[in-house]
Amino acid sequence: MDSITAIAQSWLTDFFDDETKKEIQHLMKNDPEELKERFYKDLEFGTGGMRGVMGVGTNRINKYTLGKNTQGLSNYLKKSYTDHDLKVVIAYDCRHNSKTLAKTVADVFSANGISVYLFSDLRTTPELSFAVKYLGCHAGIVLTASHNPPEYNGYKVYWADGGQIVPPQDGEIIAEIDSLSFEDIKFDKNEALIHLIDEEVDEAFFDGSLKNGNFNAKGKDDFKIVFTSLHGTSITAIPEVLKRAGYKNVTIIEEQATPNGDFPTVKSPNPEEPEALEMAIKKAEEIGADMVVGTDPDSDRLGIAVRNLEGKIELLNGNQTMVLMTKFLLDQYKEKGFKGNEFIASTIVSTPMMAQLAKAYGVEYKTALTGFKWIGKMIKDFPNSKFIGGGEESFGFMVGDFVRDKDAVTSTLLACEIASNAKAEGSSFYKELINAYVQFGFYKEKLVSLTKKGMSGAEEIKQMLKDFKENPVESVQGSKLLWIEDYNTSTAKNVQTGEEFSLNLPKSNVLIYETEDGTRIAARPSGTEPKVKFYISTNAKLDKAADYKSVNSQLETKIDGILSELNL
C-alpha cells in the first residue's frame, strides 16, 4: 500500500490541476480502498486498445493517462516517419467526456507539431478507420468504450492502413509511453494545426459503404426495418445509408435516437444482450416489421433480429449473422468468378462453420485471435489476396477492406440486402440461415460471460483460467477429448495420440478443448471488460430444413448438458 500511496502523492504536484489534487486528497483521507483501485496499476492496451473507468488515477481514463498515451504516440510517430509532415485524425462517440478528451488528445498532438483532423461532432468508429486512409493520415484515434457501461471510456489507436495497431507496434508504442513521466506531456496546444472535419469525409464514407454493401436487392419497397442506435453514434450514418440504398420503410426508435452517455433506456448498450433490443423488437411486432437492427455506441457491432419460423421476432447471435452475410458475399463473388486469391476470416472462438463455408466455395480461410485488429493485419500482411468479408462471434462484421475494423454501418446495409431479397423470393433471412445449415452443417454456439470486477476480480479470473487449464475435461457429453489448443504456449496437442503441433498465432491467454464429435469449448479473459468468457460450439447434421426444430432442440439440450458439466 505504501508504494500505491507514493504513486498517488506524485499526482499532488503543481503539474496536475486543482480538481485532480483535491479528489486524490479526499480519497487518501476517506477511501483508501478506492485509492488503491485507482493507482495499483496503469491501464494497458488490450484487444480493443485502452479502455477503463473514467476518473482520477493511473488505472483510470483521464486527461493525464490519455495525454501520456498521446505524448508517447507522438514521439513514436516522429521516430517512425522521420521526414514526414505528420497527420492524425480523431473521432469520438457519445460517452461522457468523449468530446473533451478528444480535444485534449488533439491539443497534445498539435503541441508536438502534428496536424490534427478532428471530427466536429461524434462519428462512428468505422468512419474513423475509413478516414485514416481517406485523409492520408499516419494514425487515427477514436475515443470510445464501445458497449461498456456508462462509467467507461477508451482510446483506440489506428495506423496508416486504417487498422488498429498490432505487434510489434503496440509493444513499441507502450514502451515509448512507459518511458515517459506525466510531466513530459505537452499540453500547450497549437490551434493552427487543429482542423475540424465533417461532411466531406461523411460523404466519402457513405459512398464507400454503399459501394460495398448495396447489391441492388429486390423488394426494398416492401421491406420494413426497425432501427435503434441505442443512444450511440450510428444515428449519424445508418439511416442515411439505408435511405440512399433505397429503403423507405425504416422506423427509428426515437426514445433511443438521441446520443446519450447514460444510455437511459437500457441496462447495457450492447446489442449482444436481448434486453437492449426489447424496445425495438416490441415496435417491430406492433408494425409488422421484417427486421430489427441495433448497434452499440460507436457503431462497430450490430445485433439483428428477424422473424423466425413461427413469425416471431428473434435475436440472432453474431455467429449466425456472420455465416449468412459471408455466404451471401461468397455467392456474389462466385457469380462473377473467383480469381483464386480470395479469403474469408474469423477468430479462434467463433463458429467452425466459417471453415466449412470456405471449403465449400474453394476460398482460403484465415483464423485470428479475438479482435478485429488481427483481421485487419491479415489484409495488410497479404496485399495480393482479396478479403471478401468476415467477422467474429461478438456481433462484429467487416464487408471488404475499405474499412479495416468492425463496421456496423455497411454490415447493416448488407443484412438488409440479404433479407429484402430473400423476402422478395418467398424466403426470409431465417429460412436462408436454415438452408445454410442443411448445406454446410448445423453449428450452434453459446457464450457464457462472468463479470469479476476490481483487483480481486482480476485474481479470480486468473485462477479460474488456471484451473480450467490444469484440470482438463476427459469428455464432453460422452464425446472423448481429442485436442487441447493452448495459445499461451502456442501448442495444439492430440491427447489421444500425443502428437503436438505449433499454433502459428501470437501467444494469447486462450485455451480450447475439442472433442471427437467436433464440440469445442474455449475460455479466455475479456480484453476490454472485467470478464472471463466461455465459448461453447456444438454441431450436427441437418438433412433437410423440415428437421430444423428437432435438431435445434437436440443441440440446445447438449449445450445445457455441457454448461452443467462445467458448472457454468
TrEMBL record:
Acetylation as UniProt keyword: no
GO biological process: carbohydrate metabolic process; purine ribonucleoside salvage
UniProt entry keywords in alphabetical sequence: Isomerase, Magnesium, Metal-binding, Phosphoprotein
Database matches in CDD domains: PGM2
Single GO MF annotation: phosphopentomutase activity
Alpha-D-phosphohexomutase alpha/beta/alpha domain location: 44-182, 208-305, 317-437
PANTHER family associated with the record: PHOSPHOGLUCOMUTASE 2B-RELATED, PHOSPHOMANNOMUTASE 45A
Name of the protein in question: Phospho-sugar mutase
Organism: Flagellimonas aequoris
